[in-house]
Amino acid sequence: MATKVLPFYQKRHKHYGYDYRNLDTRSVVKKYTSKSSVSKRSRLSLETSLSRHSPCAKRVCQYAEEEVPEYTVPPFRSREGEEEEVKPKPRVFLYGTKLREMEAEISKLKRSAHEQADMLALKRMEEERLAVQRHIREDSICRAPEFLVRLRSHTVWENSFVKLFCTVQGFPTPLVRWYRDDVYIDQTSEPTKYRMDSYYGVHSLEINRCATSDTAQYTALAFNIHGEASSSATVIVKRFRGDEEPYHSVLLPLNLPLLSPPIFTHIDIQYSEKFGVSFGTEGETMILSCRMILTPNLHRLQPEVVWYRDDVEIKKSKWAVMQYSDCTATLTLPHLNKDDEGLYTTRLITRGGISQHSAYLFVRDADAPIVGAPGAPMDVTFYDANKDYVILTWKPPNVTKESPVIGYFVDRCEAGSDNWIQCNDAPIKICKYPVTGLFEGRSYIFRVRAVNKSGISRPSRITDAVTALDPADLARLQTIYFDASRQIVISQDELEGDIKPPGIPTNVHVAETSRNYIVLSWDPPEPRGREPLMYYIEKTMAGSASWQRINQEIAARSPRFAIFDLAEGKSYEFRVFAVNKFGMSQPSASTGPVTVQEHIEIPASPSGVRCARNTKHSIVVHWTPSKSAKDLIGYYIDSCLVGTNDWQPCNHKPVKYTRFVVHGLKNGHKYIFRVKAVNALGTSEMSQESDPITVQAALTAPSSPYGITLLDCTNDSMTLGWKAPRFTGGSDIIGYYMDHREITDLHWHESNIKPITGRVHKVENLKGGSFYEFKISAMNVGGVGVPSDSSRAFKCEAWTMSEPGPPYDLTFCEIRKHSLVILWKAPIYTGNSAVTGYTVDICETDSDEWRAITEKAVSTRYLKVTNLEEGRSYIFRVHAVNTAGQGRPSEPSEPILIQVRPGTKEITSGVDAEGNIYLSFECHDMTDASQFTWGKAYEEITDFSKVHVETDGEKSKLIFKHPDMADLGTYSVAVSDTDGISSSYNLEKEELERLMALSHEIRHPTIPLKSELSYEVFDKGQVRFWLQTESVSPNATCKFIVNDLELADSKDHKITFNKSTGMVEMVMEQFTSKNEGTYTVQIQDGKAKNQSTLVLIGDVFKAALEEAEFQRKEFLRKQGPHFAEYLSWHVTEDCIVELICKVANTKKETVFGWYKDYVAVPAEEPPNPQTGESKLSIPEFSRKDMGEYKMTLKDDKGQDVTVLEVAGKVYEEIVQEISRISGFSASELKIKCTPEGIRLQSFLKYYMEDMKVFWYHKDSKIASSEKMRIGGSSDQVWMQICEPNDRDKGKYTMEIFDGKTSYKRHLDLSGEAYAEAYTEFQRLKAAAFAEKNRGKVIGGLPDVVTIMEGKTLSLTSTVFGDPTPEVTWLKNDKDLELNDHHYATLEQGKYASLTIKAVSTEDSGKYGINVRNKYGGETIDITVSVYKHGEEIPVVKRGVQPPEQAKASHAEPSKPEASKSSKFGRRK
Question: What is the pTM for the complete model shown?
Fold first, then answer.
């Protein structure tokens, strides 16, 4: 349901005072109030009566009293109530009485309804009266919109923000709409760009991140039902001059073709990001993009984006991909080639106009596959394609360092395959080639490679596919249309029928002429016929009638033919035959003489190469075109740093213009340039080199000053200050011009006639109380720059406040990652007292909140602000403070971006070659107008009594004349006409002291010494004093001073000074006790001095004197036989100790002698007469060989002796050396089992008891004991494990220590190794036990017994065995029968006897005793010889039978041979 719009005062107020009512209204209301009270009483009585008869009466009365509801739920009776009503009641009252009561009730209800209707009528009448009253009152206060505060114009920097304000009044409250150049601003289309606010009649429009395209007229339109009003202001967005280029980026004419005429509707396009001059390399991917802001940004009105390269529209292909989305136009070049180099332009076409941006793309050659090979050709194109041939053209590469191109190879490949075929066998020298041998109907792609003496280049970009077809065949097709869906295609060949034979070709002529080939062209015969035609070509020398067929084997299928193998300079004639299956035509007419030659020549070199500055990294190169510029492809430009002879190509694709901007140069460096022309035959000679030019920005007028501030004001004058232009335009600022005007005046008036040299100016003769605006222009030698933006209006009235005025000239320097330094100047107006300090406020650009940086005022006029966030922008302002308080703030600074400038350098300190202490700063981005400004405590240094400045090119030094502690402090430097390049250096006490010490060393130099004064003693006892210096000049001098007396060169003191080596020496022939004292050498070389002192006093002198005397005696000793080398010891690899010495000056008569402990020892051999070496060998060295060894020499010339005491430390060292050799030669541990246990042993070259041999079991050292016995022999060491058990298992280590190194051998005695060893031990142990307890003869029996016949022989021996052995006697290895003649006894189990009574010769023989028990036994033989009385006692040898017994044995051969006996007998 529609509602009426109420005025604002009715929305806020619900009750009104009586002043809105007239007298009639008051009476009506009073009457209504009285009636209301009467009706209220009647209703109460009626309610009481009706409540007894009707259940709804109370509810009806309630609603009558209160406001009437919109909907009332009707009451429903219950079923019980209905049943009760149906029941008959007794008639107590009369019927008439009840009817009267009902009529009374109805009449009361009617009166109540009339009263409600009257009340509603009164309300309606009152509302109508109030509406009329309100209308009358509103008419008295209604008015159209009116601007109390109008919009003001603003000038801001790019990427900053601006806010426009206005105040509007009117009734009803007017609405405000904003327009930009009369186009409505839709905030919803770009919410981050615009912000619109309205607070109690104050309206504002905020524009964020202003761009130059935001420069426009902005209008605020206020309107209501009574009218409208508007206010306009201009916003100018300015850009830094350094970002602008005086010329177009490539200086090429932009004659881009227009598309179809668009329907113009205004759409504003602003570029937020644009691609710039780009550099790429072949094979890389390059993306060019532009981001824009559209106003309004309508989905159906997006711009059409078209890309161009060198004025030619780029079509979408695999080499170029174009995209547009989200207000971003992108061109992607996925695989760069030099074909892609050129000027790229993106054109945005809207219904309201065209916007475009251009920049150049440079593409460098990729690395060649062979060093020195040329770059690839480019722009390979084809034309005149036919059935079996096509002509290719291309552009040659730019060659600077490589050798010249000698030709090109052309390759072809069928489309869809990778099989490349080289078309020409020899390099073609011209950039054009007819490719023949194609197959009709097939598609081909082509590429070209350049060749020089180093190799072949990379291939060019492949061409588009071309199909081998005759374009004339299409012209011979006719199409007959029956209807929209049916048609008939008929070839003209079919209409002509069969032609027998074909006609003669006509119009035979030469289409292409070169020194390598000729292309012949003709028209097919008419009519052709339906049969396929082929052609044969003949040639003849001009003037000859001898025709020669050229294509004898393969006929031409198209009316084009390339003819090769022609002699250059000769004239030929050609004719053509047409052939079909019916035969051959007559020959065509001759072409006439055609000379084989080039129609173009290599162009002449360009001339007049001249250069001009453009930007900090580019130069504009101009030249005069080649005089013979026929069929010119373009020009190549090369650049070279002056002094390097390193020529680099500036463009890699020929340009057709005679002016080119070379980009990518180093600022501040000098370059020279040269140009060469290019056509199909190659490149011209190089032009003459241009004059050297320094890469700097071009000289222009300065940018405009900014930051105009009112510094002081009286009733008729104003003092203003401003900031210098950010860019001086390449030269110094000469002065400033100021204009002023009243805000009511449209015309500007000059404030000064002569230029203002400073940046503070007082304007006089002004009107008091008036408002003035000012603008300022800067001037240099290039002219007067653009004036600044108008200042805000200043009122001309005298300042009388007690606080100081605003500081001014806020400048910023040393902008680093998280800090900057802000500088300002003191206020002109100081108030009632002097300025005591300053406070600094900061505000982020996207905020309106200012905060103080310092808690207390600073006394300096600079402040380093830290803890800033990198990448954010801040605004600053400064207040001056005096005793009265804080004064007016300065003008807010421009937004400062916290970001480190690339290539930022800092001040360095040092000392130069003359000893001067300096601070140095270097800047590579200077212009001709740039100057270094040094300051201390950020105040420019004007007093040069203590310092002076030296500037050389890009480097400046601040040199201290007489440095002292007063020079401590912060020094700063700023470079003008740059993008704020500056730095500071805090010179502290420690650093200054270090620099002063270094300066003193340089100004008072000392000659560096390689070695201090020292001495050495010669062989004859002479003493040499010497020192050595670094290199000195030939004029250097020296002095030797001993005990304060200078010594001169003499026979006793030979002094020399070798100046080439710096060696100073003095030789004293006789060094005696008188020479004790102090020795000093003083050296001087120009200003440089040095000295060195040697003190020879006390013990030091005594040691030197003793050494001199010893050397003197040694010299005398060596006059006779002597020892050149005294006795020393040496251990051979066989562990034989040798005592060695060397003798000298000996002869044959010299007597040599070796002694040990004064006892002569025979020498194995005399000294070697050649080497003089003599030695004494001690094999199996042991402790018994300790003692004093001495060797003597003696002859008639003298004698000498050398002594070596082999004891103590010498003995230990010998043992250690033996340990080293033996330890190195020791074998791995081996197991040997014995009856006592298991023995671990290692064999080595030699072992002695004093060697340090250690045994370990499981890394625990083992000491020799009954259980573990440690020992060794001459060639082995061992350890015996007696009675081994399971606890003896584990790893065993033997270590031999030579005092430095341990030699270890290991054995793991566990597992199978232990089991086998233990088994063998048990076996040997059992065998030893058996050997110990077996039966054996201990002694008592002789080996031979001689006895005279007739006597009694008793043989007694002691036997042993456990158990007691059995004893058996043998004779001649047979058991001896015991009887009375032979009887045996065994007493006590150990004394066995054999008695032979009355021996006879028959008793001679070999007897034996056999002793045996269960463990074994043995037999002992005894030879018994019986001789007769009177005979000589026979000599019987052991084991030899007596003669009688021998005869008996011969007589009895059946008896076994007697076994041999031994000293220990034999075991059985």
Answer: 0.46
